[in-house]
Design brief:
This is Tetratricopeptide repeat protein. This protein is mainly alpha-helical. It is about 80% helix and about 0% strand. The protein has a domain at about 1-105: Tetratricopeptide repeat domain (Serine Threonine Protein Phosphatase 5, Tetratricopeptide repeat), CATH 1.25.40.10.
Length: about 240
C-alpha cells in the first residue's frame, strides 16, 4: 500500500504542475522500472495527448501492455510506434515478440527480419526469430538462428533446448540428443529437456537406450513434467 500511495502522490503532483512531455515520459519509464505497468500506461497516454507521434512513448506503452500480457492490444501500439519512427529496431522487435506470443509466427518472422536489418548487432533477435521459425516448422532456418545466438553466448540452456527440438523436427535424433545434453548440463532442472531426451532415446534408439531413457523420463516426472508418466507406465514399469 505504501508504494501505491507514493505512486498516487507522484501522479497528482505531475497533474498539478502541468509537466512537460519529457517529464511525463521520464515518469512513465520510472514506473516501468518498478513494474507498475498500469501507472506507466497512464503516464504514456498523457505524453501522447501532447504528442501523438512520440515514438518512444508509443513503444514504451506497447511494452507495458505486453508485460500485462495484453498482446493483442500491444500490437497496434507498436505499429503506431513503427509509423512514428520506422528506423528504430525496437518497435519492430517488440511487435515481433507480441506476434510470437500470439503464435502469429509468420508475422513475427517478418518483424524480426526488419529488426535485424535495422540493427544486426541485437543478437536477442536471432533466438526469438528461431522460436518463430520453430513454430512454423522451418527447422533448418530455426537452427541457423539458434546457432547464431550460441555463437554470441554458448552457455544458453534454452537455446540448446530449442535447437534440440528443431533437430528432432529435422529428423536428427543424434544431434538433438547432443543439444539436449548441453541444455541439461547447463540447467539440471529443465524437465522438458529430460522428457525429450527420454522420448528420443526410446523412440530412436529403442532397447539399447531403454534404461537411460527411463531414467530421463523419471527425472522429468520428478521435476514436474507430468506427461512423462504415460511413457513410464507404458515402457518402464
Amino acid at each position: 500500500m505504501k508504494k501505491l500511495y507514493i505512486v498516487t502522490l507522484l501522479i497528482a503532483g505531475l497533474m498539478g504542475c502541468s509537466p512537460s512531455e519529457e517529464e511525463l515520459l521520464k515518469a512513465g519509464i520510472q514506473q516501468m522500472d518498478t513494474q507498475n505497468w498500469g501507472e506507466a500506461i497512464i503516464l504514456f497516454d498523457r505524453v501522447l495527448e501532447i504528442n501523438p507521434a512520440n515514438g518512444t512513448a508509443l513503444n514504451a506503452k506497447g511494452a507495458a501492455l505486453f508485460q500485462e500480457e495484453k498482446y493483442e492490444d500491444a500490437i497496434p501500439v507498436f505499429t503506431a510506434a513503427i509509423d512514428a519512427d520506422s528506423a528504430s529496431y525496437k518497435a519492430w522487435f517488440n511487435r515481433g515478440n507480441a506476434n510470437l506470443k500470439l503464435e502469429n509466427f509468420k508475422n513475427a518472422v517478418s518483424d524480426y527480419n526488419m529488426a535485424t536489418l535495422l540493427d544486426p548487432a541485437q543478437t536477442d533477435i536471432y533466438y526469438n526469430r528461431g522460436l518463430a521459425l520453430l513454430g512454423m516448422e522451418e527447422y533448418e532456418d530455426a537452427m541457423l538462428d539458434f546457432d547464431a545466438a550460441l555463437r554470441v553466448e554458448p552457455n544458453q540452456a534454452l537455446v540448446h533446448f530449442n535447437r534440440g527440438k528443431a533437430q528432432l523436427g529435422n529428423n536428427d535424433p543424434g544431434g538433438a540428443m547432443q543439444s539436449l545434453t548441453e541444455a541439461i548440463n547447463l540447467d539440471g532442472k529443465n524437465a522438458a529437456a529430460y522428457y525429450l531426451m527420454g522420448v528420443t532415446r526410446m523412440s530412436a534408439l529403442g532397447e539399447a537406450e531403454k534404461e537411460e531413457g527411463c531414467a530421463d523420463l523419471k527425472m522429468a516426472l520428478q521435476l514436474g513434467y507430468t506427461e512423462a508418466k504415460t511413457w513410464i507406465d507404458d515402457f518402464c514399469e
